[in-house]
Amino acid sequence: MMKLDHVIKFVTKDGKEVTIRPATINDKDRLVEMYLNFHPEDRCLGLPPVSKPAIETWVDFILDSGFSLVAECDGKIVGHVAIIPAGNGTGELCIFVLRGYQNIGLGQRMMKEIIKMAKEKGFRGIFLTTSRCNVRAIHVFKKMGFKVIDSCYDYEMYLPLK
Q1: Residue 155 carries which DSSP code?
Q2: What is the spatial distance between Cα 79 and Cα 72, in angstroms, rounded to a whole number?
Q3: What is the pLDDT of residues 20-58, one digit of tens each?
Q4: Three-state SS at 40
Q5: Which of 5, 3, 2, 12 has its CA nearest to residue 74?
Q6: At what angle do helices 106-120 and 135-143 cross, to 10 degrees?
Q7: Checking DSSP bridges between strand 67-73 and strand 76-87, what pairing results, if any?
Q8: 103 touches 128 (CB < 8 A)
Q9: Sign for the pseudo-dihedral over CA of 74, 61, 49, 12
Q10: Which helix (H) or strand (E) holds 22?
């Protein structure tokens, strides 16, 4: 494993060589492509959007408003995690991993790195919202230290950083 300014190279549980690195505006087209190929059953709470114009607007917002990491394998982006500042020292997390790259440790690794970045940037905590039926993701979020703070309809989860 090599680390250089948040660039991580590692091998997943199933032997895929992946690079995790900070996303840049130059990644926009490849991020849009990833989200266009996102499996409909993997969408959660209406995200990612479905149409290309909506995806482009959403990706622009994420790249302009927060900070994010992408995971690359074989020259294509296969995962994206972002934190959007939400005020009061907190940020909102979203994470998406293409089918075929799930359940191999990639999402967990991406979350570890984005949490480190949030700590370095001085965030007090990170929150997220997910569907109650997103059982695999909830398991990973809890494994990373997130706690359910509201479960009325969806799960709202929070990870204190300080």
Answers
A1: E
A2: 7
A3: 999 999 999 999 999 999 988 888 888 899 999 999 999
A4: helix
A5: 12
A6: 50
A7: antiparallel
A8: no
A9: positive
A10: strand 17-22
Instruction: Give mean pLDDT, residues 5-25.
Output: 89
Quickly tell me which residue has 């949030």 as its tokens.
118
Which amino acid would we find at residue 116? K
pLDDT for the residue 3 = 39
> What are the tokens at 85?
């500042």
Cβ atoms within 10 Å of 53's Cβ, excluding its own: 9
Give the Cα separation of 29 and 131 in Å (integer).
28
Tell me how far apart the alpha carbons of residues 30 and 159 are, in angstroms, rounded to a whole number. Answer: 30
Pick the CATH number of 2-123 from 3.40.630.30, 3.30.70.100, 3.30.420.40, 3.40.630.10: 3.40.630.30
Average pLDDT over the chain, rounded to an integer? 91
Predicted TM-score of the model (pTM): 0.91
How confident is the model over 52-69, as pLDDT tens digits? Answer: 999 999 999 999 999 999
Count Cβ atoms below 10 Å from residue 29 Cβ, excluding itself. 11
